[in-house]
Amino acid sequence: MTGRRVEFAAHDGLRLAATDWPGAADRTPVLCLTGICRTALDFASLAGRHAGARRVVALDYAGHGESARATDPSRYRPEALIRDVIDAMAALHLHRVALVGTSFGGLAAMAIGAMRPAALAAVVLNDIGPHIEPMGRAAVVELIGSDPSFTSLDAATVWLRQRHPALAVLDDAGWRAFTARTYAEGADRLWHPRWDIRVGQQAVGDAAGAPPDLWPFFHGLGRLPLMLVWGQESHLLNADTVATMRRARPDMRVVSLPGTGHAPTLEEPAAIASLDSFLAALP
After folding, report:
1. What's the whole-number average pLDDT of the chain?
2. Which of 34, 41, 153, 207 has the greatest number of C-beta atoms within 10 Å?
3. What is the pTM of this model?
4. Cβ distance 139 to 235 under 8 Å?
5. What is the dihedral sign for C-alpha 88, 182, 272, 257?
6. Any idea of the CA torsion for 55, 123, 259, 162, to the nearest 10 degrees?
């Protein structure tokens, strides 16, 4: 089933876009939130498995994918992007969702759990937790803050594969497809990031400021069904943090993926099996 692109205005009028796959109106919809340099394209596989049975919506944050670029880069600060998610939920009539959040999307899930607790029916955190390793944060800023302007998709694939954390599920064809979801060919015939590179410093780097204590936000998810997908080679989420999360939430479903860094694609066989059964258990 093909998703349809929908557009709507954020509170300040900036145009935002999402991909919406229809599903049964009486079942809990799934809202998919990407990492800070990813787009709705990453969730096509998940939507292909669940659309029809339940509605699936994947959002492009401001400055990403099909959403508009902001004039003022401070528009990409975390609090603004999270407010956009809340605006999107209102505009798209997503009143109570199962939220699947990769990296920054998982942080947004925890924030929404504190700000709008009734809006969440369940949460899947993809390789993110309430403690973020600082070296990992720096690596993310370095990767997403530049535009190498590749001459071809093949050149982009080689570059990205050399620098991106390990993704054990991807073979040669998989890396090419992943790269095509990361970069797009522009009018100049060069391949550029699918996000505004100013996002890096504003959302993750120094301009974002020190992250707050996220443990209270994580504990605030205590009433909800919760699942964690963890890449064991992740530079953002380490084993100690995962262990502490498990002690706090012994009922949390955990999928550990060896040989996988930040962030799992959610196309790993173990992730697919666990995620699909987790969602299937929801009304």
Report:
1. 94
2. 34
3. 0.95
4. yes
5. negative
6. 70
- Which stretch of 76-90, 169-183, 204-218 has the lowest confidence by average pLDDT? 204-218
* Per-residue pLDDT, 208: 57
Burial 41-52 (b: 16+ CB within 10 A, else e): bbbbebbeebbe
Query: Per residue in 58-91, is it b (16+ CB within 10 Å) or e — as a string?
Result: bbbbbbbbbbbbbeebebbbbebbbbbbbbbbee
Environment class of residue 120 by beta-carbon count within 10 Å: exposed (0-12), middle (13-18) or buried (19+)? Answer: buried
- Assign 201 a pLDDT band (cuts: 50, 70, 90): confident
Q: Which two tokens stand for residue 132?
A: 């973020």
SS3 184: strand
Average pLDDT for 46-56: 96
Question: Quick one: pLDDT at residue 123?
Answer: 98
Residues 66, 72, 77, 81, CA torsion sign: negative
Cα-flanking dihedrals φ and ψ of residue 116, to 5°?
Answer: -140, 65
Digit-coded pLDDT (tens) for 84-136: 999 999 999 999 999 999 999 999 999 999 999 999 999 999 999 999 887 66
Torsion, CA 68, CA 6, CA 80, CA 98, rounded to 10? -150
β-strand pairing of 191-193 with 183-185:
antiparallel
Average pLDDT over residues 12-37: 96
Buried b (16+ CB within 10 A) or exposed e, 18-31: bbbbebeeeebbbb
- List, in order of start, the domains of the chain with CATH numbers: 4-134+210-280 (3.40.50.1820)
As a whole number of angstroms, the distance between CA 60 and CA 168 comes to 26
